[in-house]
Amino acid sequence: MTTEKPRQARLPMVSSDLTVKTAWLYYVEGFTQEQIAEKLDVSRVKVMRTLASCTAEGIVVTMINAPTAGQVALERELEKRWGLNAAVVIPTPSGHDHLEKAIGHAVAAYLGEQMQDGMTLAIGGGATLHASLGFLARRQLKRACVVALVGSLPHSQWINPSIVAAKVADVFEVDSYQITAPVTVDNSSLRDLLWAQPT
Fold it and tell me: Which of 32, 56, 141, 160 has the fewest CB atoms within 10 Å, i.e. is most exposed?
């Protein structure tokens, strides 16, 4: 006569083991939350809460192994700190002479992505914006326009907001609008006179 040994009951996992195993199955083995719930015999809500606690408690640390990860981190920090919709960070070029060109290239790429039919672009001036003009890809937009944010700088045509606005408008084949007044005037009387002019 043979006797069978009683089956040893499976002990429930302690909380820490369950947390680590949940994280392992999800992040390493690619299980879905539903699959984890079934495998560990817990509710899906439990799985969701466990995964959330893994991140909050530092059990799971996400690393992005890409050359541009540092740039993205800086962009997100700028967006959060200043309430920006978007920020663009570029790598420092090898020489200072190339900085303006590198920024101009990034500005052109961002502007090209953002410009859409029906959009009004209000734009300033400056060397960086001027540097971006050569990198803008020509395409035709409908019902869009470009507006200069400030008045003219008659002695600095290459960074003149009116010139920049007109050139950007030309790239997208849309209308441009300028403020037909200088950025600065000699006295408040002239300022008031210009301000009183009908648009």
Answer: 56
